């Protein structure tokens, strides 16, 4: 095919990736994009990467920006009168140094190894409580009974959000998670629910803002109180920065861990010998989590902006282009993995991109790993004969792809 035909084919495949009909199994689409190689779509100011070395290079490159305002597309929107930041101050994930460095350095104090380790007994207790409600032989939805309530309870506990307010948080989080999908980059248009997402974002930030003010007066043993008190070299977070940080951590710590637990169970139930092995040996859970992060990750793609003219692999990327990084495709690259499409927790040490790389490596990675490991080992120990009850369904999300339900019989 000619270069123009290759570009048209990648554009077609990206649109297919957005189609909910392909949510259950996007991997054949990723395979086709990866075979076509890194591709620039000039009219969209978009470069697409799906091979492991290219994705790794984008994530590590010092000229890869995370601030969307550096993109050519965003600059055009602002010049046309659009709001620069319609959701307000972004979390540090969507900022570049030095702002990213300063905010992350302060926020990471609340995710220190000491803090995460101290949470283990509470997470064990939560898992035991949730599984204690379930009986062997009974049918239940694994999402509703375990994969969803566990990380939600943990992140609410961390932030100091009253658990009774979680249903409103969950609804807002689900809408905002869809906002991470690359509709504008691929189609040039916003998704249909943009007004609903703006309203959800405004409500969530307002709620968190009120909570921050309450914690200033009455601090507690929670993350918001720690962020208020956190200080590094005489620097402290502003109220707006604390709200943006908590907003980011709630969505990231909520949606992704739900997906991780559910994706692991779904893979294990498709490969019964691995479930039986985990039931007999709970210590296998950590390796299963890592293979799930590679094989069917809770975050399927991310993006960066070229802060300067740069070259990724053999592709020249002009300054201002959005670089779409299909990490889920990269993690099934046959040039990087033996038997990449096979779920094999026994494959040994795994390099993957599920938590990112470089300065934006996921702050909550140790907590997500801990929650998933404890949940899987306890679930398999209690339900060695767990089996699917019906075909599950998927949420509409492309980026934070995950199951909406997972019916099983214990």
Q: What is the CATH T-level topology?
A: Cytochrome p450
Our Rg estimate from Cα atoms comes to 21 Å
- How many strand elements? 12
SS strand fraction = 5-15%
Largest sheet: 5 strands, mixed
Oligomer: single chain
CATH superfamily: Cytochrome P450
Mean pLDDT reading:
88
Distance between the termini: 51 Å
Cofactor: heme
Protein name: Steroid C26-monooxygenase
Keywords: Cholesterol metabolism, Heme, Iron, Lipid degradation, Lipid metabolism, Metal-binding, Monooxygenase, Oxidoreductase, Steroid metabolism, Sterol metabolism
InterPro entries: Cyt_P450, Cyt_P450_B, Cyt_P450_CS, Cyt_P450_sf
Features:
410 residues; alpha+beta; Cytochrome p450; five-stranded mixed beta sheet; 17 helices; globular
Sum this structure up briefly.
This protein has 410 residues and is α+β, with helices and mostly antiparallel strands. 52% of the residues lie in helices and 9% in strands.
Structure description:
Keywords: Cholesterol metabolism, Heme, Iron, Lipid degradation, Lipid metabolism, Metal-binding, Monooxygenase, Oxidoreductase, Steroid metabolism, Sterol metabolism. One of its GO terms (molecular function) is heme binding. One of its GO terms (biological process) is cholesterol metabolic process. Pfam families: p450. Pathway: Steroid metabolism; cholesterol degradation. The protein is of the alpha+beta class and 410 residues long. It has a single domain (3-409), classed as Cytochrome P450 (Cytochrome p450, Orthogonal Bundle), CATH 1.10.630. Helix content is 52%, strand content 9%. It has 17 helices and twelve strands. A five-stranded mixed β-sheet has the order 1-2-8-5-3, sandwiched between helices. Strands 4-12-9 form a three-stranded antiparallel β-sheet. The chain has a two-stranded antiparallel sheet with strand order 6-7. Strand 1 (39-41) and strand 2 form a beta hairpin. The radius of gyration is 21 Å and the shape is globular. The N and C termini lie far apart (51 Å). The mean pLDDT is 88.
């Amino acid at each position: 095919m000619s270069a123009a035909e290759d570009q048209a084919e990648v554009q077609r495949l990206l649109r297919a990736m957005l189609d909910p009909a392909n949510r259950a199994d996007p991997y054949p689409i990723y395979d086709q994009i990866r075979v076509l190689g890194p591709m620039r779509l000039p009219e969209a100011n978009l470069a697409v990467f799906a091979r492991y070395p290219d994705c790794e290079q984008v994530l590590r490159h010092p000229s890869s920006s995370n601030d969307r305002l550096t993109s050519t597309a965003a600059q055009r929107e602002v010049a046309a009168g659009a709001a620069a930041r319609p959701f307000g101050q972004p979390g540090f994930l969507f900022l570049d140094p030095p702002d990213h460095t300063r905010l992350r350095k302060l926020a990471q104090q609340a995710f220190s190894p000491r803090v995460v380790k101290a949470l283990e007994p509470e997470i064990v207790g939560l898992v035991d409580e949730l599984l204690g409600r379930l009986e062997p032989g009974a049918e239940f939805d694994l999402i509703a009974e375990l994969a969803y309530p566990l990380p939600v309870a943990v992140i609410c506990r961390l932030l100091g959000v009253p658990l009774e307010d979680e249903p409103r948080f969950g609804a807002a989080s689900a809408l905002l998670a869809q906002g991470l999908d690359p509709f504008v980059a691929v189609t040039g248009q916003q998704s249909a629910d943009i007004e609903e997402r703006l309203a959800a974002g405004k409500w969530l930030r307002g709620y968190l803002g009120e909570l921050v003010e309450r914690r200033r007066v009455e601090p507690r043993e929670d993350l918001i109180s720690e962020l208020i008190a956190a200080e590094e070299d005489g620097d402290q977070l502003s109220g707006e920065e604390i709200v943006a940080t908590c907003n980011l951590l709630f969505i990231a710590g909520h949606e992704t861990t739900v997906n991780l637990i559910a994706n692991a169970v779904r893979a294990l139930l498709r490969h019964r010998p691995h479930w039986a092995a985990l039931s007999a040996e709970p210590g296998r859970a950590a390796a299963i989590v890592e293979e799930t992060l590679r094989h069917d990750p809770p975050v399927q793609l991310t993006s960066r902006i070229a802060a300067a003219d740069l070259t990724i692999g053999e592709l020249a990327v002009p300054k201002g282009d959005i670089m779409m990084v299909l990490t889920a495709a990269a993690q099934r690259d046959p040039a990087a993995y033996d038997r990449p499409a096979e779920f094999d927790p026994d494959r040994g040490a795994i390099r993957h991109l599920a938590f990112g790389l470089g300065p934006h490596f996921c702050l909550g990675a140790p907590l997500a790993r801990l929650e998933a490991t404890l949940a899987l080992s306890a679930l398999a120990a209690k339900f060695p004969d767990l089996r699917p009850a019906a075909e599950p369904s998927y949420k509409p999300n492309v980026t934070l792809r995950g199951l909406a339900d997972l019916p099983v019989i214990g």
